[in-house]
Amino acid sequence: MTTSPDLGCFGVSDQIADLWETVERVIRQPYAIDDSAILKSYLKTADHVLYLADNAGETVFDRVLIEALPAPVIYAIKSSPYVNDAIMPDALAAGLDTCATLISNGAQAAGTLLPLCSQLFRDHFENAPLIIAKGQANYETLSDTGAKVFCLLQVKCPIIGLDLDVPVGSIIARQSGSR
Predict the structure, then answer these.
(1) How many other C-beta atoms lie within 10 A of the C-beta of residue 29?
(2) Residues 37-68: tens digit of each pLDDT
(3) Which of 31, 66, 155, 170 lies in the 20 to 30 Å Cα band around 161?
């Protein structure tokens, strides 16, 4: 049997990682870029957090983090399916409605392309004192949008690894525009 080359940079791949192996590795692995202390300082003063979802399967992990945050959270998902990004049914299935206010970003695109998002979402984005942006696509679209944006991701693509100057597989907590 042959498999396609890993096209993770394009949102498709025949490679399926073992979930528990990945979770255990990520828990043990240090950040390759670690702006978590700065993120924690923002959390001390933020009256709320705008949290930008990534993959549908990660919503359960998002809930664990959101439940630990000291400020109320607005959880933004895609308006309709795009690759494997989280949409409203995924957020509801993970129980995120019990710990966050759920909104749509109004777009169906990789990452968060602000010109494609609804005005309501853009208002939330502009007024949020702190934004947590999950995943590579959000990193690609928001990595230079301002100090209140923190990109949390695992580097899955050599191109992103080159951009961040870290190896594939690295765990990143990076303040937007910090490098």
Answers:
(1) 12
(2) 999 999 999 999 999 999 999 999 999 999 99
(3) 66
For 14, 69, 92, 123, the CA distances from 34, given in Å and listed in that order, are: 30, 18, 31, 28
CATH architecture designation of domain 35-175 = 3-Layer(aba) Sandwich (3.40)
Q: From the centroid of its chain, how far is CA 42?
A: 17
Provide CB contacts within 8 A for 149, sequence distance 6+. Answer: 131, 133, 142, 175, 176
Domains of the chain by residue range = 35-175
The residues near 92 (Cβ < 8 Å, ≥ 6 apart) are 102
Q: What is the pLDDT of residues 78-90, one digit of tens each?
A: 999 889 999 999 9
Instruction: Record the pTM.
Output: 0.88
- How far apart (Å, rounded) are the C-alpha atoms in residues 150 and 65? 14
Provide DSSP, 93-140: HTTGGGTSEEEE-S--SSS--GGGS-HHHHHHHHH-S-EEEESHHHHH
